[in-house]
Design a protein that fits this description.
The protein has 11 helices and 7 strands. Helix 5 runs antiparallel to helix 6. The chain is of the alpha/beta class.
Length: about 280
């Protein structure tokens, strides 16, 4: 698909903003999605000049967990033109919420975004969802049959109760969110694998990517509050934080024809730290 609508969620800052800048093409439609209306307006103004006019850059204030808001978003995409690309970067990190908001936004939100946009997918459409290298370290990548079974049904209205029953003290369900983050992102990776066939039936591709320590305001907040983040940074084979632009470049490749045989898989972009940490733990 040569032209169409590019949707970027979490577009007001961080990796979402960087992806929007990288994917923007002059005189092609982009839809920026975030909860922060003021920041969205500022980003739109910033991108409008390169887009050859503000009429090519649109905004939508939407909560990715809100079914009604996502239905309105899908309708807006229908009005703007064919759905070409999704870069779903919206999410929250461990210091930003307790365990359930973490799962609700990062996993349930992703499932609802994909559910809302699948009917619009057509040959050439590509969707890329953010996971995390947290799904590749510690006990998470080995999985847990019971927990995976619950996480594999993210649209179940009883998901929170089912998770609470399964966890039984294994996560701090009274407030902690660090464990929940890794498992929620594992859920995203598994979701993408399962849903790739449905997207493929429409001629579309679906992928996830797993960033490591990327130099964004969210990551800097995590570094200040979570000692393990500094341990990870100190053990990264490429000894620095990644740049948001490097993740954006990966997204640009994944949605391009050059990646036309990639779907249903996760791409790890973390400077090699997951491999190092797993080696330390083995």
């Amino acid at each position: 698909m040569d032209t169409g609508v590019t949707i970027v969620t979490g577009a007001a800052s961080g990796m979402g903003l960087s992806a929007a800048r990288r994917l923007l093409r002059p005189r092609e439609t982009m839809l920026l999605v975030d909860l922060d209306a003021a920041k969205l307006d500022a980003v739109r103004a910033d991108l409008a000049e390169y887009a050859a006019g503000s009429e090519w850059v649109h905004t939508a204030v939407a909560d990715v967990t809100d079914v009604d808001a996502l239905a309105r978003l899908a309708e807006q995409v229908r009005d703007l033109g064919p759905f070409r690309t999704l870069a779903h970067a919206a999410g929250i990190s461990p210091t930003m919420g307790e365990w359930w908001p973490m799962v609700h936004v990062d996993l349930v939100g992703t499932a609802r975004v994909l559910q809302a946009l699948l009917p619009l997918a057509q040959p050439g459409t590509v969707a890329v969802c953010w996971a995390s290298n947290a799904a590749h370290i510690g006990a998470v990548p080995a999985g847990d049959p019971v927990l995976d079974g619950v996480l594999d049904d993210p649209l179940d209205p009883e998901l929170r109760a089912r998770l609470t029953a399964v966890l039984d003290g294994r996560w701090d369900t009274d407030g902690g969110s660090g464990d929940a983050y890794g498992w929620a992102k594992r859920g995203v990776i598994r979701l993408v694998r399962r849903e790739a066939s449905a997207w493929g039936a429409r001629g579309a591709r679906l992928l996830s990517l797993s960033p490591g320590i990327i130099n964004t305001p969210m990551t800097r907040q995590e570094l200040e509050q979570q000692p393990m983040m500094q341990v990870m940074l100190d053990n990264t084979p490429i000894p620095r934080m990644g740049a948001p632009s490097e993740v954006a470049d990966l997204v640009a490749f994944l949605v391009s024809d050059a990646a036309g045989y990639l779907t249903g898989t996760d791409i790890l972009i973390d400077g090699g730290v997951s491999a190092t940490i797993q080696g330390m733990l083995s």
